[in-house]
Amino acid sequence: MNRCLTVFGILLIAIGTCWSLWSILKTDSDYVGTADWLDHQNDTFIKQKKQVKAGLFLIIVGSLAQIIAQFL
Question: Rounded to the nearest 5 degrees, what angle is found at the Cα of 54, between the Cα atoms of 6 and 22?
Answer without folding.
Answer: 95
